[in-house]
Write a structure and sequence with these properties.
Elements: E1 15-19, H1 22-30, E2 34-35, E3 52-58, E4 61-67, H2 73-86, E5 92-101, E6 116-124, E7 128-130, E8 135-137, H3 150-160, H4 162-180, H5 214-217, H6 228-231, H7 235-238, E9 266-273, H8 281-291, E10 293-297, H9 300-304, E11 309-317, H10 328-345, H11 358-370
Parallel strand pairs: 1-4, 1-5, 5-11, 6-9, 9-10
Antiparallel strand pairs: 2-3, 3-4, 5-10, 6-11, 7-8
């Protein structure tokens, strides 16, 4: 595609992308087709805006990437508020990064490590009342986050259809291969199906040699403690029993012999967002059943009220006590690739030209078609 003209000012940017981790932002920046700030930040920002930005183009969209200073809903809300003050033309915010997945989605499909989830809604699962015997989420009209606007819902409906989903997943895989071929991501390659292990929800990550640790030896129920060393160790070191893993289908159907998890699937559904890092298989499954969610993350709820928003995240763990960081780099690339595939389908409104502007309109249409 020929170079697109540089935006004249900050108001020409319509897409905001928000990332919290360095690996997430690196993957998004690598997906840019062109940067507008190679010679420094020429667009500046509003007075009092503490955010750091990168500006550029993805396809025919002018995008601004905001870097978060920390994790959680509160930090995300502050970043989104500042983005809105500096870039008043934003019509869509994408929260892109990694998350914990619910192994069995609400549609009955397995969610694997490296897959991507796209939000159709957000639930603040940790916003409510803690009673002596249980936690009750605050579920009122005023406390719940609203559903996406009609434009987002219409596009998601299109993408969930057979043709739209095939295009989205095909483009995601194509963009992901491009990212994986980059020198900077040589250490972020697909970890392989042998590293995609799902343990039974109640099977704890602890020292299984009872003579090694008295604390872990007493851990039999969800409420029981494990030692700090166990929480920081891998499954091999703790001798986690491979026979307690859940057998799952790792292959596509008859149409493809490629490993199911080598080509990331894209799943749509409600995502749980909160300030808690979910590391409990039993709590994960309980909340997933109650709220009908497919993943857990920590920033979407903070951005949701500031902009029309979609959360796009790669699954890097199963939100259980066995979670580790082996899949984080690859999942971040999967999410960035899906983000770019999503933006390929996002149509920016174009005002119909007057008779004297028809040549300019034809040029804009040509560039949009080539992207």
């Amino acid at each position: 595609m020929a170079n697109q003209s540089r935006p004249s000012n900050r108001n020409d940017f319509e897409i905001a992308i928000i990332c919290v981790l360095k690996s997430e932002a690196d993957a998004v920046e690598a997906s840019f087709d062109e940067f507008w700030d190679e010679d420094g930040s020429v667009y500046g920002k509003a007075p009092g805006d503490p955010n750091a930005y990168a500006t550029g183009r993805i396809g025919h969209h002018n995008v601004v990437l905001a870097f978060m200073p920390g994790m959680g809903k509160g930090a995300a809300a502050h970043v989104a508020s500042s983005v809105r003050s500096s870039f008043e033309g934003i019509i869509l915010a994408l929260v892109v990064g990694i998350c914990g997945g619910v192994p069995l989605g609400i549609d009955g499909q397995d969610i694997m490590l490296g897959d991507v989830v796209i939000s159709t809604g957000i639930v603040q699962y940790d916003f409510g009342r803690r009673l002596p015997e249980r936690f009750i989420r605050k579920d009122t009209l005023e406390s719940n986050l609203g559903r996406p606007n009609p434009e987002i819902r219409a596009l998601l409906s299109k993408m969930e259809g057979h043709r739209g989903n095939r295009r989205l997943q095909g483009n995601t895989w194509g963009y992901l291969k491009t990212l994986l071929d980059m020198e900077q991501f040589k250490r972020a390659q697909y970890p392989g199906p042998s590293e995609d292990r799902l343990f039974e929800a109640a099977y704890r990550h602890k020292h299984h040699d009872i003579s090694y640790c008295a604390t872990c030896a007493k851990c039999e129920k969800k409420e029981d403690l494990t030692c700090q060393q166990a929480r920081e160790s891998g499954c091999a070191e703790l001798q986690c029993d491979e026979s307690r893993t859940v057998h799952r289908q790792l292959e596509h159907g008859e149409q493809s012999a490629a490993p199911r998890c080598a080509t990331p699937a894209v799943h749509f559904g409600t995502i749980a967002s909160g300030d808690t890092v979910m590391k409990s298989g039993e709590d994960r499954d309980d909340i997933a059943r109650q709220e009908m969610v497919i993943a857990f993350e920590m920033e979407g709820a903070g951005v949701w009220d500031a902009f029309p928003c979609i959360v796009i995240k790669g699954v890097c763990d199963y939100a259980d006590s066995h979670k580790n960081k082996k899949w984080q780099a690859y999942a971040a690339l999967s999410a960035a690739a899906c983000m770019k595939a999503f933006l390929k389908e996002w149509t920016t409104a174009v005002k119909l030209p007057t008779a004297g502007e028809s040549g300019k309109y034809s040029s804009l249409l040509t560039r949009a078609q080539k992207s």
